[in-house]
Amino acid sequence: MTDALITDLSKLTSLRVISRTSSMQYKGTHKALPEVARELNVDAAVLGSVTRSGNRIRVSAKLVEAASGQNLWVQDYDRDESGVLKLQNDLAAAVAREVTGKLTGKDQSRMAEGPQSANPQAYESYLKAGYFSSKETDEGFEKAIEYYRKAIDLDPSFAAAYLGLGGTYAFMAYQRRLNYSEGSVKAENLLAKSLELDPNSSLAHALSGMIKFQFRCDRPGAERELNQALELNPNDMAALDYHSYYLLEMGRTDEAITEKRRVLEHDPVAVGTSSELGLYYLTAGRNDEAIEQLQKTLELDPNYPSALTRLGRAHAGKGEYDQAVKYIKRAIAVDNTPGRLVQLGDVYARWGKTQEALDVIQELTSVSNKRYVSPSLIAGIYARLGEKGLALSWLERAKKQDRPDLSDPDFDSLRSDPKFKVIEARLKPDKSCPDF
């Protein structure tokens, strides 16, 4: 219910709506509403409860002025569970009218775009999928895929389930948790199906834009999709977030950081968004700002693996290798992925800890027998160690669809070697492809 309200109210251009991850931090809190409102910088709050009894759903909701605690509007709803999605839309529209007064024609049209599925079991599976996906672990993604597929089986016309599954595959491919080409193709097909069912989905357009940009190397197509997403819903923070990624990968780091900060304003205690802002600073070479931001992230969640890894990278960028290793090892203890192992191996190699780096390579080699590991990642550590022959040998195993980043400074020592030039010619991406 919270998700539905936030999604619908965010369609209104006159409102700034705090995201679910930040608002739900206060569920069950003993803080007074005025204090919560100050921390989130909001003027009003929607409070309520949902009760389920058999196949009946009862919702009690009220709109409260944050400063005074005065009720501005109160309403109860009682529906059969088959009408719960319509109920969510009706509730959001009622709140919107109270907050904004008379809705404009465009806002009325946006509010009329209710949920696409009426199957309550499919919707419940969809919600579970989103919960597991948000954990950003291998196990979490596996469960998310299972529940998204179940939702689709239960309701083949459920556009949001195709979108969720496509987004999951896209994110897993981006993080190299599965073969990049395979994951991107799956995501592309699912997003196309989602847009066929719901052509006005701003998030589906945004994700399609990122697939065009990163997988198809179609910059004009990507820009069109991302711009269309923001035209459909200027307040879609997820779409704005993807647009900021696009700017980052285009090298427009200052603009990307500005947009990412705006996303964080809508989601001030979101661990993932806070960590990603740290990544943006890191990409811009602003290591001190990255460290400051990532420390803020760890205040929200001391064991968030992405923040720990990025903090390690920031310290490595300053030559503080002991700190770097400490944070990356903490990340690996929470979520052991090839990408994190590569970061650890790279730090050891830069630090001059040859044996430790070789031990990491051995572990990566063992892992590659069980799951996808891009050969170029192992090659990068060997190159950093000065093992040119082994580095070239691993690079020769890489395929173009692996999207190896041969511009990485790790490979600088190989550039004059004729074998590297042959490999580079074979693996070099199209000029329109982004550098990762």
Number of helices: 22
- In CATH, the topology of the largest domain is named Serine Threonine Protein Phosphatase 5, Tetratricopeptide repeat
Low-confidence stretches: none
Looking at the structure, what is the overall shape?
A: globular
Mean of all residue-level pLDDT scores: 89
Give the end-to-end Cα distance, rounded to a whole number of Å. 37 Å
Tell me what you see in this structure:
With 436 residues, the protein is mainly α. 64% of the residues lie in helices and 7% in strands. It is built from 22 helices and three strands. The protein has helices spanning 2-9, 20-23, 33-40, 84-100, 105-112, 120-133, 138-154, 159-174, 180-197, 202-214, 219-232, 237-249, 253-266, 271-283, 287-300, 305-317, 321-334, 338-351, 354-368, 375-385, 388-397, 418-427; strands at 44-53, 56-65, 71-80. The protein has a three-stranded antiparallel β-sheet, covered by helices on one side. Strand 1 (44-53) and strand 2 (56-65) form a beta hairpin. Helix 6 runs parallel beside helix 8 and helix 18 (338-351) runs parallel beside helix 20 (375-385). The protein is globular, with a radius of gyration of 23 Å. The mean pLDDT is 89.
